[in-house]
Amino acid sequence: MPIKDFAVKAARPLPVIILADTSGSMGVDGKIEALNQALRDMVKSFGAESRLRGEIHLGVITFGGKAAAHLPLTPAHQIQEIQEFVAGGGTPMGAAMEIARELVEDRELIPSRAYRPVLVLVSDGHPTDDWEGPFQALLASERAAKATRIALAIGNDADEAMLTEFANDLEAPLFHADNAAEIVRFFRAVTMSVAARSQSGGDTQPLKLDYRRVADDEDDPLADFFN
Amino acid sequence: MGVRLRAASVRGPAHTETGVPNQDAVLIRQGRWGWLAAVSDGMGSRPRADIGARTLCKAALDSVRELHFDCTDRAWVETLECNWLARLGVLRIAAKDAVATCLLAWGLPDSRFRLAQLGDGLILGHPAPARGLFSRDGGSFGNLTRGLGLSWRLEDWRFDSGQLLAPGDALVLMTDGIADDLGSTDGLVSMLARELRNRGARSARAALTRDLTDWPTAHHSDDKTVAIIYRI
Questions:
Q1: Where are the beta strands (DSSP E) in chain B?
Q2: Is B214 touching A (CB cutoff 8 A)?
Q3: Where is the PPM-type phosphatase domain (chain B) (predicted)?
Q4: A103 with A141: CB under 8 angstroms?
Q5: Per the CB < 8 Å rule, is A202 touching B216?
Q6: Residue A4 falls inside a structural domain
Q7: Which CATH number does the domain housing residue A151 bear?
Q8: Domain interval for residue A52
Q9: Which residue ranges make up each domain of chain B?
Q10: pLDDT class for A197, splitting at 50, 70, 90?
Q11: ipTM of the shown complex
Q12: Domain B3-135+145-212+222-231: which topology?
């Protein structure tokens, strides 16, 4: 009974797209180094994850001086290494939003059989370009509106109002990092949560970032981010 | 000349490994009144989704036994909802805890049929609906769906009707555990009708079960359920 002859062999993708602030202000206090470490850890963890019910695809968009696709959407297990971020320039977040919107709306890169994408926005400052239009276009776009959107505000100068509006997961409001170590821990929490979702196989629940647990619980990597 | 119905359902690897029951359900019935194929996929995040799906299939049978074939789409859906809620009520289960998709093919002995779909999955037909009654649009993703217990609007449903006129004409109802992994579906329905033509119910179920168990998509996880109605 060859019904299975009509099935594709490729696994269902679970896209994870990081929008990373690499502006000049990220070059102080070890922030960019922490971001580099966090991404390396994330790639390593995703690539080593063997209990998946899909295939995690990772993409990275940077905005520092100019916005660019730093890493095209790639199956995590195929990523050999990720080019290190270098901090510099302004914060063209609007341009990064535009790249992210085009990526999420691309039906070839992200087919409809894919799991709901996860967008992670990380920033320590205010956008320096004309960001309102691209930002609203991203939030209003058909597919990005359905994606899970998570935001991390680094330090005290981040545009928290905008980042709060970006985040749409009830289980994951805006998170904060006050130092480099917390950036790494945030990414570890996102990694664990995405891996957990991919193991559940088509779970329709929100991405679980278990920040409600007590703050001194060392097992909870996001406890320190809970306001 | 007549119509035959065949079906199979297998638990996905994710549920097998974790000891969770199959959250898909299927019911096929045929009598002097006509025939019904009901396929349902319980929404995995809901605690009683497996019961929701099974109950929905039974409620679908209740409904077509109560209704005239020429009833309106609204009457069909409203009767189905009432019967489903009544069955859940007896079990003291809230609808929100038992959300399930719904794919229905309801036919008469002369092989006229009506189709209804709410949520994910795929209803294909040969010769029609060749492209599917209601496939996921490009704006959605694989883990978002509608279902009874979550959607109460008639606008969320899709309907169609037709007739299986010639031998080999067929309908296939499948949950998203199958539909989401399919590439081109050209020729799928007529192939199934041809392959099943000389098989009895037990043989057909065994063959389909083998096919759905030995599924080639990498990391596939979901339960898989299919019902086939074909003219002989």
A1: 3-10, 24-31, 34-41, 102-107, 112-118, 122-126, 157-163, 170-174, 224-231
A2: yes
A3: 11-210
A4: no
A5: no
A6: no
A7: 3.40.50.410
A8: 18-225
A9: 3-135+145-212+222-231
A10: confident
A11: 0.91
A12: Phosphatase 2c; domain 1 (3.60.40)
- Determine, yes or no, domain membership for A41: yes
Contacts with A77 from chain B: Cβ below 8 Å: none
DSSP 8-state symbol, B159: E
Chains A and B form CB pairs within 8 A to the count of 118
Q: Is A170 on the interface with B (CB under 8 A)?
A: no
A7 part of a folded domain = no
Each residue's pLDDT expressed in tens, for chain B with a length of 232 residues:
699 999 999 999 989 988 999 999 999 999 999 999 999 999 988 999 999 999 999 999 999 999 999 999 999 999 999 999 999 999 999 999 999 999 999 999 999 999 999 999 999 999 988 878 765 555 677 766 789 999 889 999 999 999 999 999 999 999 999 999 998 899 999 999 999 999 999 999 999 999 999 999 998 989 999 999 999 9
User: Is A198's pLDDT higher than 80?
Assistant: no
Q: Is the CB of B217 less than 8 angstroms away from the CB of A107?
A: no
- So what's the pLDDT on residue B71? 98
Query: How many alpha carbons fall within 13 Å on the CB side of residue A37?
Result: 13
Number of structural domains (chain A) is 1
Our CA-based measurement puts residue B129 at a distance from the nearest CA of chain A, in whole angstroms, of 18
Tokens of A175: 């998170």
Give the nearest chain B residue to A7 (CA atoms): B182
Name B224's Cβ contacts closer than 8 Å, sequence gap at least 6.
Answer: B9, B10, B12, B24, B174, B175, B177, B178, B212, B215
User: Mutate which of B219, B222, B223 to disrupt the A interface (most A C-beta within 10 Å)?
Assistant: B219
A6 in a structural domain: no
**Cβ contact A20:A60 at 8 Å:** yes
Residue B145: name the closest of B121, B114, B123, B165 by CA.
Answer: B121
B226: chain A residues, CB-CB within 8 Å: 3
| C-beta atoms of A113 and B180 within 8 A | yes
